[in-house]
Amino acid sequence: MLYTTVKKTIRVMFTPFRDGLQSCFGGRVRVNDVLPAMEAAAQAGIRHFEFGGGARFQAPYFYVGESPFECMDKMRAAVGPKADLQILTRSVSGVTLTSQRLSALDLQARMMKNHGTTWDRNFDFMNDVENLARTGKPIADSGMHHQVCIALMGLPFHSDKVHTPEFYVDVIRRFQKSEVPFNSVCLKDASGTTDPRTCYETVKSLRELVGPDVLIWQHTHDTASMGIACYMAGIEGGADGIDLSIRPLASGTVQPDIRAMAHALKGTGFQLDIDVSKLGEVEKLLEEGLSAYDFNPVTTTCDARVVGFPMPGGAIGPNVHMMKEAGILNKYDSVLAEFPEVVRAGGAWTSVTPGSQQYWLQAFNNVLHGRWKKIDPGFGNSVLGYFGKPPIEPDPAVVKIAVEQLKLEPFTGDPLEAAPDTLVPAEAELKRRNVKISDENIFLVAAAIVPGKEMELNEGIRLLEGRAKVALPLKNSETPQAENSSSSVPSGNFKTKIHVNEGGRSRSFTVTVSPPPPATTNPSDTSAASNGKLVPVYSPFEGKVEVVEIRVKAGDTVKKGQVLAAVEAMKAKHDVKAPCNGKVLSVDASLGTAVAKGISILTLEV
Hints:
By secondary structure, this protein is an alpha/beta fold. Among the domains are: 478-515; 527-605, CATH 2.40.50.100.
């Protein structure tokens, strides 16, 4: 039983304004909707917040139409100059989903520091120590508090070699030899699947390794209902700080509620550094600010099945939202069941971003196309070593398939040197479009560059040119959906709210949107082909997806099975193939067009 006669105060990092938003909504929340609650939290005495990085860097300009840098500035203003504001970065990926060069990570560190960040928690999903050292140096050089992370995960299969206390402690033991300065150590369990005993043994051994003066922090999610038990175990082992949230952005896929943790510590000799009795106003303001948002039960409910599919809370939320949007939520359970196999075959890297997304997309591809019939590029690059060295050797058969499909050889060099240069093409594109060149604008474009994706669809370019995509998870009362298909494109006019910031002033407008009329031909109706008539070509998904590639033009002759276009679903590109031989009569969509069941991408004449 946890107990101490020597009183100890446990520090709290408050997470609703980053991890809470990410785990519940994929980060797709307007900053003005949470600022009042954040200000109230600061007034209640909270002095350490998570406010950026992770999905809360890309989501604001990918889906909300807001600059993440402006969001950070507003949050800093809300909490005042003395509070610590923390971001989450992903080693060689930084705040992106792809590997970056060191020049981009240097710029990232400077930008984050300039926009109010005082702490940077940096993890590597491979637990690759060389990656952690190389990417940690820019953080330390910037003057931010450098918190080096060990990424934890409960394996969905047995192994006594990886994801054990000895394995985790050895990460820091080897990191110390790099001589890169660090201020604290964090045990980050994004999926909430590590058992309490492993938490206790890891913290206890770490304390012996780093000594009494280095802060040891612990982060977990309550997805499997084990959050408080793991924190109690970590505190008993010697942890100094923990991450907590508050409802409605707590528990489920988020961190435990701060009040539940305070209650659990009663009579133990340990106490939090926050008076939880003052936080009622924070909860009230969050409920008011988020009243228009649709809380998905999958993200707000604990699910013990996660121990068999170690997905982080911050990934379950957006992936469920994307599956719902694409009309394939019925495949959710099948994707989860495929997880143990992709984790084993991949090399047991930790299920944190971008590794979690790679696991998810490969499991999704295995369900959609057959096991290993289509290798997700991110998963394949990880298997082949382009993100670092996996903890255990990947399945040789899967490595061979990845080599054949991706036309890449296994890599054992430095991922930072192998990464594409994103800053130079980003600046060139801004210049070509006569968009203001600044460090912020260059980084926004660079952080959204994905190999093979048209620059016209780059989310940084879209934001800066005033055509950002806005896809907020609002309730049906604000964004009506087609009957019996919550992910279909609305069939009639609907209203939505748009917030505009100009010259320091914020204004809100209600806009009526008129979607294009659906095509009259049913995608399942093949009689058109047999009668020599027109054959519309549709997305392979019934729900709403975006057209990201068009390979043909009007007048082209095509053959059955030929790839004509591509759509993006689940953050991955999916081919659209010709259903029959024919001639392209018309191209009915353009890059960036949202299509769904009944809305054609092209029309063939047969």
